[in-house]
Amino acid sequence: MLLCDRTMQSVSNDNFGLLIAYVIPGFVTVWASSIVSPQIAGWLGNTSPDAPTVSGFLYVTVASVMAGMLISAGRWLLVDQWHHRTGIKPPVWDFSRFHDQAGLFLTVVEHQYRYYQFYSGSLIAVLYAYAIRRYALAVPLTGLALETFGLLLIVTLLYAASRDTLRKYYTRLSQLHDAAAVPWHAPEGVNPAQSNAGSPTP
Q: 117 with 20: CB under 8 angstroms?
């Protein structure tokens, strides 16, 4: 309970995006691997009456981050390329335009791209978990019918959500990119030198 409380207290707006983008899909992968790995099962407390331990918590955290990074590479290789080839074209951006709008850029990333990473990464993690479970149980192709149906529902939901969030990320960042290219003009009848009226002058 103490470990859980500390973990919840450490989650904030600054790291929530990274948590859902890497750690959660990575943890799903680690949990699935525990089905066939007694050592990982021990980290998770599946085989020890006194678990979870501090060392087990640290092992799981590091393993989840590493697995999340590997899933991210798989996402880039598989999911990103698939979306790009099936109608969601990646825009061409001049990132120098975001220099003065770094805050807005990061807001779009946190509110759109991190969720895309979660949905697409979880898609890979869930498929991995399903494959490991079938392997561990050594069931025939027609076995686990209920779980297979549930998998299809989850995969469909994650796939649709990943396409939606990636499309919105591209659209909103493109809007920010195009807006940054438009020079600012003072309203008609307003002297640009007086546009800061009301603010103290040196």
A: yes
Q: Phi then psi for 50, rounded to 5 degrees?
A: -100, 5
Q: 119: buried, middle or exposed (CB in 10 Å: 19+, 13-18, 0-12)? A: buried
CB 117 within 8 A of CB 196: no
Alpha-carbon distance of 196 to 179, in angstroms, equals: 21
The CA distance from 84 to 73, in Å, is 16
Contacts of 172 (CB under 8 A, 6+ apart): 108, 112
3-state secondary structure 63-104: HHHHHHHHHHHHHHHHHHHHHHHCCCCCCCCCHHHHHHHHHH
The 3-state DSSP class for residue 181 equals coil
Separation CA 26–CA 68 (nearest Å): 4
User: What is the model's pLDDT at position 182?
Assistant: 57
Residue whose pair of structure tokens reads 């959660």 in the numeric block: 24
Q: Determine the pLDDT at residue 141.
A: 66
Q: What is the mean pLDDT of each run of 10 residues along the chain (202 residues)?
A: 48 85 97 92 70 76 96 97 96 87 90 96 96 85 81 97 97 88 53 44 38
| Secondary structure class of 178 (helix, strand, coil) | helix
